[in-house]
């Protein structure tokens, strides 16, 4: 019985030990410290809504939305209004020959995009798309650090391991993104792959879905995608990934449109709702794909974009 009197003393010593620890430097938190993961059956769905003129609609309340999973209605448990939820973004820059002639302009436009998107609760990581997967800019919410990493890149005429890079970036976001955040890939590439050793379109989509990741692409090939089947397949793959994850695939007529496209992506992310629901299916032991549908009943004039599914266990936590 005497040992019971030791419990308050032990607890006090533990609390003193915790309080005596020094906080990690801010640079370590933003650059290398993995985020705490939260496991639950809460499903988070970023949702973009626009009107007939393609302008974002940002004044809807939780009762306006309907969510189904595998055809079964779900009860929406929470909704964050546009711009309130954290953003974890991976910017993937193609440094292969397809963008070499416009690379300097690409860097400058990308630098402005980074400056606009990065900030409190908005993190960016930088990858290059080339013969091998390279993380060239660690996760940070400091705009100057991200811009410096982007401006340090140089183009190459080497091969393109496009899908391998998509998978690496998706896994990186999945492992390091903060809980309850929107995970996003923004890719500047024509989508042509001639060097991936481990992954193709289907496995890249699977990893994006397991990471709950939105996919946006900007294809620098412009109208030349019509010239050969390889280019057409590249753009079709980009469009497919965007449709399945709730993002967008851009094919500008002129390379000078890149800054305006970046602004559209920023505006889209700032206008997204984040809907959360607890799946009515309680069995989460299996790595099971489940289809999601998000609608705004009674408003046929509105266009709703959201990811079309998720993985019940592997994509969580």
Description:
The chain is an alpha/beta fold and 317 residues long. The protein has two domains: 42-82 and 283-311, no CATH class; 87-270, Rossmann fold. Helices cover 31% and strands 25% of the residues. It is built from eight helices and 14 strands. Strands 7-6-5-8-9-10 form a six-stranded mixed beta sheet, sandwiched between helices. Helix 7 links the parallel strand 9 (213-218) and strand 10. Helix 3 (103-117) packs antiparallel against helix 4. The radius of gyration is 21 Å and the shape is globular. It starts with 5 loop residues before the first helix and ends in a 6-residue tail after the last strand. Residues 1-39 have low confidence and may be disordered.
Low-confidence regions: 1-39
Counting structural domains, the number is: 2
Mean pLDDT: 85
Rounded Rg: 21 Å
Overall geometry comes to globular
SS content category: alpha/beta
Return the CATH architecture of the largest domain: 3-Layer(aba) Sandwich
Give the CATH level 1 class of the largest domain.
Alpha Beta
Strand proportion, as a percent range, falls in 25-35%
List SSEs in N-to-C order.
HHEEEEEHEEHHEHEHEHEEEE
Extended strand count? 14
Distance between the termini: 41 Å
Main pleated-sheet profile: 6 strands, mixed
As a percent range, the share of helical residues equals 25-40%
**Strand order, biggest sheet?**
7-6-5-8-9-10
Discrete helix count: 8
The CATH topology name of the largest domain reads Rossmann fold
Per CATH, the superfamily of the largest domain is: von Willebrand factor, type A domain
């Amino acid at each position: 019985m005497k040992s019971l009197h030791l419990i308050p003393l032990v607890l006090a010593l533990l609390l003193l030990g915790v309080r005596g620890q020094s906080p990690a430097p801010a640079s370590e938190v933003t650059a290398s410290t993995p985020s705490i993961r939260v496991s639950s059956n809460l499903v988070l769905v970023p949702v973009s809504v626009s009107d007939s003129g393609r302008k974002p609609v940002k004044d809807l309340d939780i009762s306006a939305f309907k969510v189904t999973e595998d055809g079964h209605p779900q009860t929406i448990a929470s909704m964050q209004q546009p711009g309130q939820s954290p953003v974890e973004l991976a910017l993937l820059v193609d440094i292969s020959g397809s963008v070499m002639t416009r690379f300097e302009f690409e860097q400058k436009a990308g630098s402005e995009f980074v400056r606009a998107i990065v900030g409190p609760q908005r993190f960016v990581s930088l990858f290059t798309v080339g013969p091998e997967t390279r993380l060239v800019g660690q996760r940070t919410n400091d705009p100057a650090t991200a811009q410096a990493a982007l401006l340090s890149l140089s183009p190459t005429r080497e091969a393109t391991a496009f899908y391998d890079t998509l998978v690496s970036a998706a896994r990186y976001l999945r492992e390091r993104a903060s809980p309850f955040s929107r995970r996003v890939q923004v890719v500047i590439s024509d989508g042509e792959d001639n060097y991936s050793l481990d992954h193709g379109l289907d496995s890249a989509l699977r990893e994006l879905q397991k990471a709950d990741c939105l996919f946006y692409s900007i294809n620098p090939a412009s109208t030349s995608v019509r010239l050969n089947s390889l280019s057409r397949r590249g753009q079709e793959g980009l469009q497919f990934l965007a449709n399945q994850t709730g993002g967008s695939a851009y094919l500008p007529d002129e390379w000078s449109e890149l800054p305006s496209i970046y602004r559209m992506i920023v505006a889209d992310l700032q206008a997204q709702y984040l809907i959360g629901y607890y799946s009515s299916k309680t069995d989460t032991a299996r790595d099971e794909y489940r289809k999601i549908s998000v609608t705004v009943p009674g408003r046929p004039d509105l266009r709703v974009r959201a990811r079309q599914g998720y993985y019940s266990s592997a994509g969580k936590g």
